[in-house]
Amino acid sequence: MTIEPIARFESPFRSKFGIPKQSGLVEELEGRIVFEPKFRNADALRGMEGFDYLWLIWSFSANSHQAVSPVVRPPLLGGNEKMGVFATRSPFRPNGIGLSCVRLDHVEWETPRGPVIVVKGADLMDGTPIFDIKPYVVYADCKPQARSGFVDTTPIERLRVVVPEALRVKLGEKEERVLTQVLSLDPRPHYQNDPQKTYGMPFAGRDVKFRVENGVLTVVDLVDESL
């Protein structure tokens, strides 16, 4: 089988750092699906607006090395316990293929780049190649009583996020809300916990500088990347 990207994803994240580790964790996080020129045909999207959610099949294109280990260390478990790669959603897989469920916000039908799909809650980096799009169908895809392995017994912990007023004025209300939700998921690598270290996360054209201590993440600067 030979597959090719049908589209690219546009996201506030220009690097892997800070991207939510699963789709839906930041529900308001907006992104756009822009089709490659040969697939910019509105007929291919006919009927799409009748669905609330979409499945995206995409490539872990930013992974720089081939995955060879049969086990990985899920961040949800603090990176301290190994699980089989096929029992996790790790991006380091024999075939670097991702699967995400995103909420369809709307379709921009008339743009210079053809129809563009606007979605929310995605966990994709800017420029990610998308191989396919399928509608989410409740009777087939929703299994509310299903077990979720170690995920069931390991709740997601969120940090308290503090954005000083002097920096809040640089953000719009929606942007601040989305950024706060992203930061609350703790973008740091699981093996780093230095309260004196200042981290930087590219987000929506800014370099977000922050520190973490005692469960509180404090934004210390917002630097415009164009400067």
Automatic annotation (TrEMBL):
SUPFAM superfamilies: YaeB-like. GO terms for molecular function: methyltransferase activity. GO terms for biological process: methylation. This is tRNA-Thr(GGU) m(6)t(6)A37 methyltransferase TsaA. InterPro entries: TrmO-like_N, TrmO_C, UPF0066_cons_site, YaeB-like, YaeB-like_sf, YaeB_N_sf. It is an enzyme of class 2 (transferase). Keywords: Methyltransferase, S-adenosyl-L-methionine, Transferase. It comes from Segatella baroniae F0067. Residues 3-145 form the TsaA-like domain. The gene is tsaA. Belongs to the tRNA methyltransferase O family. Pfam families: TrmO_C, TrmO_N. NCBIfam families: tRNA_TsaA. It comes from the Bacteria. Its EC number is 2.1.1.-.
